[in-house]
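User: Structure tokens for this complex, please. No commentary.
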Amino acid sequence: MHVESVSIDFDKAGGLVPAIIQDYRSGDVLMLGFMNSMSFAETQRSGEVVFFSRSRNKLWKKGESSGHVLKVRELRVDCDADAVLIRVEAVGPGVCHEGYRSCFFRALESDGQVKITEERTFAPESVYGQQQEKKA
Amino acid sequence: MHVESVSIDFDKAGGLVPAIIQDYRSGDVLMLGFMNSMSFAETQRSGEVVFFSRSRNKLWKKGESSGHVLKVRELRVDCDADAVLIRVEAVGPGVCHEGYRSCFFRALESDGQVKITEERTFAPESVYGQQQEKKA
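Assistant:
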């Protein structure tokens, strides 16, 4: 079924919406970034994920330094259009600047401890060198 | 492997962090809400998801009116501790106040059209009546 159109509600939170990045094959959630209307438009146009970096206050093409780009396979929007879910093919061994496939590699356990739930898939220093491609 | 502890960075975005809700069996992303430190603590304590509603400016226990509570199965935090991923067992036919299993039931297609990608799983008016339990 098709409906006419949807406008992403960028105004609700000062120009930004959270963008969940999910591996389209495994269903694993890889990371969360933020997008403004320009980065969202550029993501749609190019077919590769472009965030807005809150710390650097500018557009941030994921993979610009690492080569680990995120190819858009499907773009979803939630019921009140203030969050997007982007199902991707993630190029390279992982999206996390700490060397993991997913940024969500730590679980909080009920006893207060933190458990690393994944194995490292690459050495960050070999990909990013001194200049880390941090999250926004 | 265990590491010592992690502090969620609530200060980065004015006291709130985005919380991705994922079905722990299917891997489907069901919704995104926001949490402040109090709602996060209450989620950990009770084992059921409690958001902070930005529109109502107060804690919002998911399922408080619908009964569609979200039972926490695993709580993950990302690399820079400014987003959480909560893997849940979702009680009931769906989490979306519009009657869908997931709030992300619409895909944006490359031609600009919007496609409904899921079937409705319940009639919202039978669950929420006149008083809708909206997202935050």
